[in-house]
Amino acid sequence: MNGNPADGRFGAVSRRSLLRGATALGTAALLPLGSGRAAAQPKQGGTLRLAMAHGSSTDSYDPAMLENAFAQLFATARNGYMTEIAADGSLTGDIAESWEASPDARVWTFKLREGVTFHSGKPVTAEDVIASLDYHRGEESTSAAKPIVAPIVEIAADGPGTVVVTLESGNADFPFVISDYHLPILPATDGRIDPLSPDGCGGYVVESYEPGVRASMTRNPNYWKLPDRAHFDAVELLTIIDAAARQNALITGEVDVIDQVDVNTVHLLQRAPGVQILSTTGTQHFTFAMDTRAAPFSDNNVRLALKYAIDRQELLDKVLNGYGALGNDQPVGPSDRFFADLPQRAYDPDKAKFHLKEAGLDTLQVPLSAADAAFPGAVDAAVLYSEQAAAAGITIDVIREPNDGYWSNVWMVKPFVAVYWSGRPTADWMFSTAYAAGVAWNDTFWDNERFNQLLNEARSELDETKRAEMYREMQLLVRDDGGVVIPMFASYVMGLSDAIGHPEQVGANWTLDGFRAVERWWFA
Amino acid sequence: MSDIWWMILRRLALGVLTLFVVTLLIFGAIQLLPGDPAQAILGQAATPETLAALRTELGLDLPAWQRYLNWISGVLHGDFGVSLANKRPISELIAGRLANTLFLALYAAVIAVPLSLALGILAALWRGSWFDRAINVLTLSSISFPEFFVAYILIFWLAQSGLFPSISNIPPGAPLAEKLYRTFLPALTLTLVVTAHMMRMTRAAIINLLASPYIEMARLKGMGPTRVIVHHALPNALAPIINVVALNLAYLITGVVVVEVVFVYPGLGQLMVDSVAKRDIPVVQAAALIFAAAYILLNLAADVLSTLSNPRLVNKR
To answer: CA of B34: which chain A residue's CA is closest?
Structure first.
């Protein structure tokens, strides 16, 4: 699948036929060669016990909320989505078998896969798809996915197996957008879904759920992806918030997989017998965001000075213990198909001083707000940054903010703050979430005319080459004019028992194989 | 005896009054927290529109006094309301967690109370001996370390060797024996944390009495030290011991959130912390009320029991 929207069809080779072929050849033949364990054949059976650092007693089934990784992975395990982001970052069909766009990328027609049923046995129809998307739309909606579905003007069924979505303006990435974990397809009655129902059409059926504690599931015997997916007979998800408790649970064999291994102690865990470490670097990145409306950050020379005054390598080595990749002051990562390989910006106190002089300043003193709620190690990162910036004559006063209420009282309130972004699967999605002028999460309040114009044009541009050129220019603009210092992309670091097998390529769009470890992994 | 009943009634009435003041304090304290449930639930994903919509839906746009009255009248009718975060009825949410908390507290108490009484009596009996010193050093060090440290040490010794599970992962419907096995480490941690206090109080109260003339009399009659302590000193030392036991029991119910987190035990403390983080006010209020009630009831019980242990107070002239 080349993902070229110019011909309007993504689904010509369905993921299933691809996998069926691949299974015949042996999965390893399709994928780069690697260690024997990872490339071994999937095998059915066993109960996966997976412990996550998230999960709160305030969680619920409601797809409009899903605000932590536990809820998100749990939703992905029990639900089906229109499309799925494959491990290599490309898009494949899920409930939608194929899709095509009108020439202006404004009207999208999705053909639904036949024979997909909910756990209750009810077949998935266009009515369910419409109700599921409608749930997040409209004035009353409190859904976190509201901005994603806001451009939808109309959703209509064309028979039971076809859904036609009309957008207010063209969006070549729309099939990517609706793979979002907030948008599962749920059964509809009288045109409405029950958001608190555990029913879904995913690989696992919910047996019991205690928010903030555990969720137990068994394999859906009618899952349409069988036998290529859902290898475990049953799955038990646990919340273990304490990092040491989580690692102990893995070492003592209480669980088979843990997420969020503490990067400061990962070498100790690696020494434990029967444990393997898996790390993936995708779109997750950490930023220092400046309010570009407020002095002194309104001057681009000040912003550039601050960008040259940070030693990204040292931050990566010390804060992430090397588990990550260097950032380049723009949020599009190497896994994105429109990633432009711009020259890496390096630590250069002299250049920083030069830009300060250009701004008419000899010294600069700015406060930087950080808390570990922004990202683990944010306070340490801010302190390191302040040490590095001192060499350029910049004084950064690190303000340690309370974790509690960080996102409402500090982020987008204070002028210079540490921020966490999980990233987005497409460049357009990332840019229109946090860099377009006036959008709700534009945390730098950046407003660049050329950028905004390019963003709108590129969104409906169906020619891949032209599009790539536009995204290159946008990345350049964010890097050289934007209000954000991006020191690093952070890896997802997971601990696995040696008994666990997984495909050679592991999805990096989210932790745990893009939240799909539950159905993509197996007991070797 | 009717004096006792009067006292219980009076104390209960005072307890209800205290609870009422506590509700005011809880409600007022929660109003002081920065941010509101709508912001906390939506987190980074909040936009002004979703915030406004969620606030109206949750009734947060009403003035504070009106929300207080709504809540308190609900509580008086036995209705704690529904969680703002996930719409589950709070009584159901709390019932399971409270049962877990009480189970763990009881488990720890069943080990800790007899253990510390016995150790305290023995330490008093062999005052100044190596046993007395060793017990003092051991219990004092276990109370001096932070709970999570004690917990990690126990995990290191008892869980990594495979003797006990490192997390209290109890499948629904597990038999009691399995529950006891899986929650042994948290119970042991709590035991270590509370033993010193009760043991030292027992020891001190008894030693205090050993200097009194009637004990000397008993000794002069030719009684053995065990009989002197158990039959003559202990009954008079009960009042302070009962009080410190009650205080520790209350602690076992209300103060074990760190142990819950380390051993992944789904108790009330974790629920309350989650709910504070999400500003799930009704749940926080309900949990705080339960904690306050636990303190009041245990103190009441301690008062009644220590009164009963003293014949001078029971049979007033």
So the answer is: A405
Residues of B whose CB is below 8 A from A208: 172
Which amino acid, B304?
V
Residue A156, chain B, CB below 8 Å: the answer is: no
Q: Kindly state the DSSP code that residue A7 receives in the 8-state scheme.
A: G
CA distance A439 to A416: 18
Beta carbons of B264 and A245 less than 8 Å apart = yes
Whether residue A32 contacts residue A504, with contact meaning beta carbons closer than 8 Å, is answered with yes
Element (H, E) at B295: helix B281-308
Of B33, B86, B263, which has the smallest distance from its Cβ to A59's Cβ?
Answer: B86
Helices B234-254 and B281-308: crossing angle in degrees, nearest 10, is: 170
Long-range contact list for B211-218, CB < 8 A, 24+ apart? none
Query: Are the beta carbons of B166 and A144 separated by less than 8 Å?
Result: no
Strand partners, A418: A288
ipTM of the complex: 0.77
Residues of chain A numbered 383-442 and touching chain B (CB < 8 Å): 404-405, 407-409, 411, 420, 440-441
Give tens-digit pLDDT for A467-488: 999 999 999 999 999 999 999 9
B280 CB neighbours in chain A (<8 A) are 58
Any B CB within 8 A of A267 CB: no
CB A118 within 8 A of CB A201: yes
Nearest to B274 among A65, A143, A212 (CB): A212
Segment A281-317, tens digit of pLDDT: 888 899 999 999 988 999 999 999 999 999 999 999 9
Amino acid letter, residue B167: I
Distance CA A157, CA A188 (A): 14
Rounded to the nearest angstrom, the gap between the alpha carbon of residue A16 and the centroid of all alpha carbons in its chain is 24
Q: Which among A60, A141, A239 is the nearest to B53, CB-wise?
A: A141
**A245 touches B at CB < 8 Å:** yes
DSSP classification of residue A262: -
Beta bridge partners of A163: A110, A157
d(CA A452, CA A420) in angstroms, rounded, equals: 23
CA-based radius of gyration for chain A: 23
- Closest-CA residue to A504 (of A30, A13, A22, A3): A30
- Which residues lie below 8 Å from residue A523, measured CB to CB, with a gap of 6+? A43, A45, A46, A48, A231, A232, A256, A499, A500, A501
A244–B152 CB contact, under 8 Å: yes
**Looking at A305-393, which runs of residues are DSSP E strands?**
324-326, 364-370
**pLDDT per residue as tens digits for the range A47-102:** 999 999 888 887 889 998 887 889 999 999 999 999 999 988 888 999 999 999 99
Strands A234-239 and A257-258: unpaired
Chain A, 112 to 131: residues with Cβ < 8 Å from chain B are none
Q: A168 by DSSP, 3-state: which?
A: coil
Minimal Cα distance from B83: which residue of A? A58
> Which residues are CB-neighbours of A51 under 8 A, at least 6 positions away?
A237, A238, A239, A240, A246, A249, A250, A255, A257, A258, A259
pTM, rounded to two decimals: 0.82
